[in-house]
Input
Amino acid sequence: MSSDDRYFSPDPATREIAHRLYQSIKDLPLICPHGHVDPRLFADPAHRDGTPVDVLIIPDHYIFRLLYSQGISLESLGIARTDGGAIERDHRKIWQTVCDHWYLFRGTPTGMWLRDELRDVFGIEKKLNSPNAQDIYDALSERLEQPEFRPRRLFERFNIEVLATTDAATDSLHHHQALRESGWGGRVIPTFRPDAVVNLDADGWHNHIDQLSAVSGIDITDYHTYLAALEQRRVFFKSMGATATDHAALTAYTERLSDQEAETIFQRGLRGEAGVDDIRRFTGHMLIEMARMSVEDGLVMQLHIGSYRNHNPFIFGRFGRDMGADIPVKGEFTRNLKPLLDAFGNDLELTIILFNLDETTYSRELAPLAGHYPALTLGPPWWFFDSWNGMRRYFDNVVETAGIYNTAGFNDDTRAYPSIPARHDVWRRASADWLAGQVVRGMIDDEDASEMMADLAYRLPKKTYRLGI
Output
């Protein structure tokens, strides 16, 4: 099978239809409404990404978590320690270590993404392995020095229509401001993420509250002023182009507290006395408050559920958070979300995009919920399931009950900027292949498949995230 037909069914009839569907949308712009690319990459037109290790290895926990699982230390991969301890500084040596062990990624989405981006972004056809390591490093280094590989030029080459970053509620957004003032035409917008000031167990929560006071200009002394500061920041983010918020929680638990109950827990938080039950209840209450604010200001609400973050205390203590030690947990939505849905699930002004890491909930709970409540939309397969097989399971579990029009299309959720087109390409090919199977089975016709293909690839995320203007 040629690379043009990669990931398509070996059945000739299905493959021919999938190829035709993919060709009809492959040149559509990329909508990137959720991810973790650093906005400073675009703020300075002369920004240089650094070495191949800086660009492809160090930002990508998909890569270094699997290497760590095989006994390769994060220090040897150049990952900075929180205590400033010694790490490998020779990036050629790090690259060689990665390539010596690249066989670990056979059959994984990470292996597919990097192979595709080396070929399609950097024009490198050689296979990643020990003998080729230094030749590939040299070729990448040469390309990264060229003007056409600067972040802004790649943005244009990738045909990105809009890219959203993820930014703390206390962020000044100075990089976004610099982008605006630069006159560059690329659309890079912020996303409001308040986890550090909402979840009472967040690292340094009290310090984050102090920062929220400072950036909002509101002296936070109680629950009322706390809400006012959050609302002020949302107004600011929206003025900077934001169309969405983002929230992470271990579970989908929601609970409506009285103002007095919320005040009491908030004050315990300020005193450093909040207990486990306080933390759970306050986060659940604030998810409802964030939904209320979204009804009022129109920001789309993203909710990411089901990651037991920083599961490995050794890694957390030595390297900090988000270092590949996050593990999915079992989820429940029908009962946990009911207080929020009782309040706002029928409100046509609200869009909540649900992401989760428990695939068993898709057909049992999430598709039926999204297939009923106007406020609910399902995000694409996330994190551990952002893969060809994960996408196929998602379509099979969700579409029969919710259809595709209660889903949000695709987002790449990446920290490794050059992987964006490869990730979108896997989604587009998986979508084409799945739709082709529906056509072959007589479940939809060619006309429907063509419309659905364009929706899954482009129109759904643009509409769901309110990116039309």
